[in-house]
Amino acid sequence: MEQNNFPITHWSEDDKPREKLMLKGKSALSDAELIAILIGSGSRNESAVELSKRILKSVNNNLNALGKLSISQLIAFKGIGEAKAISIIAALELGRRRRSEDALELIKITSSKAIYELMQPIIGELPHEEFWIVYLNNSNKVISKSQLSKGGITGTLVDVRLVFKNALEMGATGLILCHNHPSGTLIPSDADKQITKKLKLAGDSLEIKVLDHLIVTETSYFSFVDEGIF
After folding, report:
1. Which of the four pLDDT bands, split at 50, 70 and 90, describes residue 12?
2. Measuring CA to CA, which residue among 35, 31, 7 is closest to residue 19?
3. Closest C-alpha among 190, 166, 192 to residue 179
4. pLDDT tens per residue, range 34-86
């Protein structure tokens, strides 16, 4: 575009998010400007920033909600093709993974909130249920975390032997149960309670403590210990 021949100070704000980042730093950019850098260009009648604002407005300016949009939902916006949709999805997925790694750097689990911050980026926004185990050493530091089941929780899906086989191999002295409720409800089901009891009893016999069970949603959590039903 010929506008590149003009000094940056003469450009429209919508045309220079890259230059703004270079001159002022990444924190100076709005969400729309950052997304505009990802998609590169808009259309004849709409700048990349304006297009990004329109996309964000459709999800109430919520980046978590944006990260849940599929390729087909993104390309429904005029000006977004498959390549641009993939760029947006990939960037938001990287952000989600970074949050997960940042949470791991907490290392020591000192509260139910710390568990939530560790697991929410992994399971909090999933459209299906997953059950995970967080393994801890005797200092309550995270050794590992692994998925136990996917797609629903029933007693038949809980492999108690595998849970504690892994714990023994890792030298874990404690573990925390975590699963998500895609519906957003924070009320434990009878199956949730039964699984907790089953794993807790097995852990007691091996001197591996089951320290808590968290139900995780996108915005909140339920701790069996905090609620006094553990």
Report:
1. low
2. 7
3. 192
4. 999 999 888 778 889 999 999 999 999 999 889 989 999 999 999 999 999 99
| 3-state SS class at 209 | strand
Edge-to-edge strand list for the sheet holding 142-150: 142-150, 130-136, 174-180, 209-216, 221-223
Q: End-to-end alpha-carbon separation of the chain, Å? A: 64
CA distance 156 to 158: 6
The Cα diameter of the chain in Å comes to: 75
Give the pTM: 0.60
Q: Can you tell me whether residue 155 is helix, strand or coil?
A: helix
Summarize the chain as % helix, strand, coil (round to 5): 50, 15, 35
DSSP string, 99-146: HHHHHHTT-B--SHHHHHHHHHHHHTT-SS-EEEEEEE-TTSBEEEEE
What number of other Cβ atoms are within 10 A of residue 84's Cβ?
21
| Length of the chain (residues) | 230
Cα–Cα distance measured from residue 221 to residue 54, given in angstroms and rounded to the nearest whole number = 32
Q: What are phi and psi of 55, to 5 degrees?
A: -65, -45
For the residues of 79-100, what is the DSSP string, one character each? T--HHHHHHHHHHHHHHHHHHH
Question: CA–CA separation, 138 vs 173, rounded Å?
Answer: 6
Beta bridge partners, 221, equal 216
